[in-house]
Amino acid sequence: MTTYTVNGGPGPRLHALVIGVGSYQYGGKAASWGTPLDSLLRELTDLTCAPLSAKYVARWLLEADWSTGPVKLGTVEIVLSPRTAVPWQADDGSAAPEQALFHNVTTAGERWFAQCDAHEDNIALLYFCGHGWGSSRRFLVMEDFGERPGRWTEHLIDFTETRQAMLACRATTQCFFLDACRVDPSQLAYADVRAPSLVPHEVPRDPIGMVPIRNPVFSSARPGSAARAEEHEITPFADALVRTLDGLGAVQRGADWEITTSRLPEALRDVIQWFGPAYAADGFHPDFGDRWDSTVLRRLSQAPLVPFKLSCLPRSALSSANWMLQCLQSRQTLRRTPESKEWQSDAPASSYRLVVTFPDRSHHRVTQHARVIQPPTFEDVVSVTHSPPQRKGR
């Protein structure tokens, strides 16, 4: 059992299911020959980034402060391959997460569904990192996929069916984060793939047989493309997800800062663009649900730190520029002495007085009295005017 209970009290809770599949017993060089699964299995190489990313997301969920929001963290279900020691709460006697074998994953899915179904104001959150297939109908590949090549849909999860089956869950806010490829192997095009759902519940349908979709899916790859990541590193998608939920997706509401479902797509896109520009063009892809209301995922009691980048026009002025940012609320001051590159740092979200001076008098001083720095990121280029050299008297 891999349920980590944080707050089991009454009231709405966020319940998360985190799956990281980094090893494939029957894939890669271990793939058997002479079966219809040959090419599919050979493509299933181990993914060192998958367990790292899943652990990163799970650890953040467990360690983040949920005390000030309307919905507290309830439980986190975690399954990982290869099996690994607990990377969090090392002194509480927690058992290591179970392996991401099909049976373990679907059992965790049943528990997760039951937890989410307990209250209509619950939030259901799913994060998956591993191999995936399908640009329209999507499949998630478990560690023991290919164990019996003659029954090749075993140990495969139909995520499209899962998303629809979750409509039977009373939790009205559901967010799915899929850190996986969306390619279409030729075998899928010619096969009648009938893989099971992660949650074994009937799909509710309206009177004319249509299936309503209300739950957004956030993907690390566009339809038909592969997700990009570096070996032995956290994926750009997992990194951006944690940064966004940690504060870069927040908007100010009075004295508080709130991270809402309506703000999430735009904020995630901007954070990925900032921290992983090489992955942004063919990466992040939100698939919106049909619910237009907004749920508060987290509430922060203080302003989040916002990454910023400041430069000069012309850029050559950077090498002689002194920078100052002074918060109009706290009077906290940030400074930087002349350097030949742009100024990159972090500042609490607020309004600032920006002053750029030039000790060598090469350019005129610039003062901007109220620059707003707010999540997710801030970038600006300050135009400066060249100061002609002073004539020397006789």
Please, could you describe this protein's structure?
The structure is a single chain. It is built from eight helices and 20 strands. The chain has 394 residues and is an alpha/beta fold. It folds into two domains: 298 residues, Rossmann fold (3-Layer(aba) Sandwich); 79 residues, Carboxypeptidase-like, regulatory domain (Immunoglobulin-like). The strands form five sheets. Strands 1-3-2-4-8-9-12 form a seven-stranded mixed beta sheet, sandwiched between helices. The chain has a four-stranded antiparallel beta sheet with strand order 16-15-18-19, with no helix packed on it. The chain has a three-stranded antiparallel beta sheet with strand order 5-6-7. Strand 10 and strand 11 form a beta hairpin.
CATH fold call of the largest domain: Rossmann fold
End-to-end Cα distance, whole Å, is 88 Å
State Rg. Answer: 25 Å
* Category from helices, strands and their pairing: alpha/beta
Helix content: 10-25%
Task: Report the mean per-residue pLDDT as an integer.
Answer: 87
Strand percentage lies at 25-35%
Largest sheet, in brief, is: 7 strands, mixed
Extract low-pLDDT stretches. none
- What's the CATH class label of the largest domain? Alpha Beta
Query: In order across it, which strands form the biggest sheet?
Result: 1-3-2-4-8-9-12
